[in-house]
Design brief:
The chain is an all-alpha fold and 165 residues long. It has one domain: Arp2/3 complex 21 kDa subunit ARPC3, CATH 1.10.1760. It is globular. The protein is built from 6 helices and no strands.
């Protein structure tokens, strides 16, 4: 019995670590194309924000992945903190709504649309207003989390029992 519990624990740690690593890699790919930062952010890694629908291990995995991505891409310290917290809030929200598949991308879209514009305005002092940044960040999040995330969810759904056991 105890051995099975340890296997489950190790599996969750491995899942979280893999999710964090994939998040970082996808952020670097988006960053190479100039899509990961600035007003409109289409991070391919944000398509992973639906993973808490499948496993609780995705919550810390996404948080750590975002944290590392923000550090490694040279974000300002307050962006590292608040951007990563936005991802954590979105991941927790997705996990809480896991019974409602079509709502899975809503928490990360909302968390980032509300938090990131303040980072852009006050940390980076970009030209533009908070509502403008909410619009641009929201569009990027709808593309990343809403469209790409739901494509990801449907692709993983068939194999979720084997991947996220």
């Amino acid at each position: 019995m105890n051995e099975r519990k340890n296997d489950t624990y190790v599996t969750k740690i491995v899942q979280a670590t893999m999710i964090a690593a994939i998040y970082v890699i996808l952020t670097f790919i988006a960053n190479a194309f100039g899509l990961a930062n600035y007003a409109i952010q289409v991070r391919f890694s944000e398509a992973l924000t639906i993973l808490p629908y499948f496993t609780p291990a995705a919550v810390p995995g996404l948080f750590v992945g975002c944290l590392l991505s923000n550090i490694l891409t040279g974000c300002m310290p307050l962006d590292v903190v608040f951007g990563s917290l936005a991802t954590l809030i979105g991941a927790v929200g997705t996990r809480m709504l896991r019974k409602y598949k079509w709502l899975a991308p809503i928490p990360p879209i909302l968390a980032n649309t509300i938090i990131v514009p303040f980072v852009l305005a006050y940390v980076y002092q970009f030209e533009g207003s908070i509502p403008y940044f909410m619009l641009t960040v929201g569009v990027g999040e709808i593309i990343s989390c809403g469209i790409l995330g739901m494509i990801n969810l449907h692709a993983l759904e068939k194999h979720a029992g084997r991947i996220f056991r």
